[in-house]
Amino acid sequence: MILQFQNIHKSFGEKTVLKDVSFLAESGKAFGLLGRNGAGKTTSIRILMNVFPADSGQVLLDGKPIDYKKIGIGYLPEERGLYPKKKIMDQLVYFAELKGMSRKAAVASVDHWLDRLGMSEYRGKRLDTLSKGNQQKIQLVTALAHDPDIVILDEPFSGLDPVNAMLLKDVVKEQIAKGKIVLFSSHQMSYIEEFCDSIAIIHEGRVALSGDLHDIKRRYLRDRLVIRTIDPQPIRAAFGDACTATDGGALLLRMGDPQEKRTVMKRLVEQYDIDEIKVFEPSLNDIFVEYAGKQDEEEKRA
Amino acid sequence: MRQFGKILKFELNGYLKNKVFVGVTLFLVLAIAMVMFLPNIRGLLHSEKEASGSAAARPVMLLYARDGAVASDVQTAFAAAFADYDVQTAQGTEEDVKTFVKTGAAECAFALDGLLSYTYYVNDLGQYDFNCDTAETVLQELSRASAMVQAGLSPAQTGEILSARVTGRTETLGKDRGVTFLYTYIMIFALYMVIMLYGQMVATNVATEKSSRAMEVLITSAKPVSMMFGKVLASCLAGLGQLVAVFGTALVLYRVNKAAWGENPVISYLFDIPTGLFVYLLVFFVLGFLLYAFLYGAIGSTASKLEDINTSVMPVTFLFIAAFIVVAFSVMGASSVDSTLMKVCSFLPFSSPMAMFARICMSEVPAHEIALSIGLLAAAVVFIGVLAAKIYRVGVLLYGTTPKIGEVVKAAWKA
Q1: In this structure, are B222 and B314 located in the same domain?
Q2: In this structure, is residue B271 part of a structural domain?
Q3: Which one of A12, A77, A86 has the shortest CB-CB distance to B217?
Q4: CA B365: distance to chain centroid?
Q5: Residue (of A131, A132, A185) closest to A156 by Cα position
Q6: Which pTM was predicted?
Q7: Rounded to 5 degrees, what are φ and ψ at B118?
């Protein structure tokens, strides 16, 4: 399946929230929707979920408008969206039934997911008696219990300890492997980088950058080397201003021309005590800051 | 439709599992059960009193004649007229009589100047103290009798003249307002109570879902119309269920206990409500409740915080109270039940459940007017219901400051 946002426009009153937003997400792959607070991510997600329509443009699945009666969507909202005072089993079965499951199937599926996430002992408890991380796991069950075709995860890792984060990663990988369209929205770039094959950065309602993450990184000029060494001093002395120290303790060496890569690498290995040397690729965090930050500066200048 | 059924069931379960709701219902059922057994309890107390049966149990009423001794026929006539009192003639001065009343040795006292003038002494005059009226009747009869005897009539003739009684009967050709007034009042107050309690509950319920963000998942899982109608109908059923439990208990216990109630006209009228009126009561009650509950639900969805609910619902509450006051006052002054104001109110959906029902109960309303009123009300319920669902859809996603009603309605209209 291919999910396609095609020239989506949306405004609320005088305020335009989305301007000509287009991107593509494929099944069996995870897609990262990035953007600063208020950029238009949640509005995009709500249009996808048919909470409200776009003013113009279309959301297509395999080239056709989505048939919401047939296509299931699972949504994990950024903030807890559950009844704090109700029993966990009651509300999870209710949400699954609302998504069209029979009561029997809903109970079986919720039981399976509670078991999978190690939450079975809490089925008869009220939600507000659980810790934040455990509430997040319950929220995940509402997103997955009805076996949706499209899974939308908004800040799924918030509040999870490393063990639970690992559990969630496994679940997400399973969903991707099952051929579902998984849409991530997060500010934790490391997770996006780990899961997502393609991304779209939305900035002030417009898509600032979109496409395959690997290709995006490749587009950057490969004119810098990352060097790890026990003794950085001689290298810094030899290369002067072209060589700077990074926050991680490594050295960043800017070459005059990317073509010089082999020559420079050979020289370094031969002349200095080098532990590791590789071509510098910007992290998603760098790219995000560059796109979301650069435009801010441009606006300030304007 | 299936989704609506699920929502209705879930919401209704929410009420039935709510300890406060169940507790209040049980309390009301117990309270009404006690009221229904009141005559038995009173009977029991009375019979105990009668068993211990001395005159000392009755309060003392003193009779004092300013111009000498109280005549024996006056004492006899007072004793007969005030069967609940132990009527005694006072000794000593008038000041002593006052002291007796003041200290509580006697409950009240009559100081007589002959048969045509008296002073009534009582410590605290009760709202329902009709002793003076009774005393005046007794004294008037005594005075007439003595005048007739003085004019030369025999005591037998005097007795015959004074005991002559007029007989008459009333035949109600229209409606007996003394009876139907009761139905109107009960309906108006029941509707008032249920709308105030459950309307607020619907608003709070929606606002809680919004503030707990359960809405984020709900709104993506179910249609707003199903959500709104499911919620409002659940609260309507819960309210009706509570009323059925309370009035049902009363009815069953009345049937069980009919003998003890005897010929209490108020109670027997209450439980012998004509079927036609009962059907109207149900129709106007349900439609009236739904209309206001939808409004409360829509307003609940626009509140940003739970604390804002009380101020947000104020316009709807005022609207309802205004309708309530107009109808309640018109019903009190029974002649104005057919006034122009009431006629207008009986077609306006926000007041028609109370106004039209009051008119049906207390006056003659042509069938086509009733049909028109119900039709308008039902159409308004559907219209407000759909509008409320639209407002809900827009309102629940608006966080931050509470939006202006005009803006929300405009946005909902577009949605």
Answers
A1: yes
A2: yes
A3: A77
A4: 24
A5: A185
A6: 0.75
A7: -155, 165
